[in-house]
Amino acid sequence: MIDEAGNSISLPVIEANGVYKIFGRKPERAIERVRSGATREDLREDGLTAAVIDASFDVSEGEIFVVMGLSGSGKSTLIRMVNGLLMPTAGSMNVGGHDITKLATKELRQVRREKVSMVFQHFALLPHRTVGENAAYGLKVQGLNRADRERKADEALEMVGLGGWGGSLPGELSGGMRQRVGLARALAAETDVMLMDEAFSALDPLIRREMQDQLVELQHQLGKTILFITHDLNEAMRLGDRIAMMREGRIVQIGTAEQILNDPANDYVAQFVQDVDRTRVLTAAAIMEPAVAVLGSGQGPRAAHKLMRENQTSTLMVVDRDRHLRGVVHENDVAEAVRAGADNLTGLLRSAVTVRLETVVADLFTAAAESPAALAVVDDEGRLRGVIARVTLLNALGDPTMTVEHTGPEREVVR
Question: Among candidates 276, 327, 280, which has minimal Cα distance to 299?
Answer without folding.
Answer: 327
